[in-house]
Amino acid sequence: MTEKKKNSSEEEKKEEEIAREIEELEKEDTSTEVFKTAFKIALGIVFVLLGSVFWFIWSKDFFVVMRGCIGPFLIFAGVIAVAIAKE
Question: How many Cα atoms within 13 Å fall on the side-chain side of residue 33?
Answer without folding.
Answer: 6
